[in-house]
Amino acid sequence: MIDFVTTDPLRVGLAAGAGVLWMLMSGVMLTRGRARASAVAVDALILSASQTGQAEELARHTHKALSTGGLTTRLMSLGQATVADLQQAKLVLVVASTTGVGDAPDDGAAFERALMSSRPDLSAQSFAVLALGDRSYEDFCAFGHRLHDWFTACGATAKKPITEVDDLDAQALKQWESYLKEWGGAAMQADANFAATTLIARERLNPESPSAGLYAIDFAIAEGATWVAGDLAEILTPSGHRRDYSIASLPEEGRVRLFVREVIKADGSRGEGSGLLTTLPLGESVPLRLKTHKGFHAPAGDGPVLLIAAGSGLAGVRPHLLELAGRGRPCWLIYGERHPLHDGRLSDEMRGWQHGGRLRKLDLAYSRPDDGVKIYVQDVIAQQAPAIRDWLGQGGSVLVCGGLDMGRGVDAALKEALGPDWLEAALSEGRYRRDLY
Fold it and tell me: What is the pTM of this model?
């Protein structure tokens, strides 16, 4: 078992994920009644609702720990679970994060919309929820609490009170580990450990901008390391906190590239992650590991793709552009930055891709141009709504990467342009994928 009194950040993170997984399991089974293989009776159903992959990873470790301990288990995303799945499990464990302003992650949103307004009979089930969140936000662990309340309303028995985890808090994880011991789990193992990784290059991309610096930061690739478009690099800060960054490159480019926006707080101090990455001397190392992010992997099929990003969010969609265009899928990029000259370096690469035929369509939006006419990516969506409907048709895909506020604006604009039914179907089918922070 994980020793929850440990101060090791990786082990602490694993414990947190375990709890979130239990929480997700509570909600997964109710998600949809779509046709698929019959539900299988198990001791424990582990469900994950994850926006950046943390809850998903922790759910995997929880699943492995419980199955190694001798329980029959099943692991799935909350968004895939049906009522039958829930009713076939003795214990439902949900590991769930909260994103935005008390919002469910994408793989939990469909479950919440479709099933949490109903009250299926779960009186034969027990459940537990591990909720991941950040106490600096007003709606701390809100989605986890909604799941807990819903399971209770359906007659399920709470095995334990909801376990709230603030930024992978060690004490909360210690409590969760004590629950895992009661339920017969074995020790949990990490997929990959952090390794000292060397900084090989760093360049400020907007040196003349009065705005916060935007940096391209390159790390060496560890021997044997690999990843796919959409995956994340996770660093460990000196204080033991973990920070995720979208990987802006593909392995064949010979580097792990990140786009990092400098964060300067109101008191003049630097953000912990960005401060480390933007000041670390070349040749020195940070603890880093590569992390799969299945929720932002390339959508299946060969249809057209609309990619939307702003600022450092281009990191998330850039490798997708390289990969998808290389496979012949038509790509349209809508990209937003602050100033066309001072903040336009990444736009220049995109223009080159358009001229070279890699990008079929490119729209650029600048929020702080000299003429004062602000345009955001959601404005472009509204202006291009008919063309976007034609481009996507019924089988196209949408990938979005950037800040939470941008993501909300884009979602509202897409609902207006495409209709909520199109977006909901695309979300459930994996054709609408978001990486928001």
Answer: 0.84
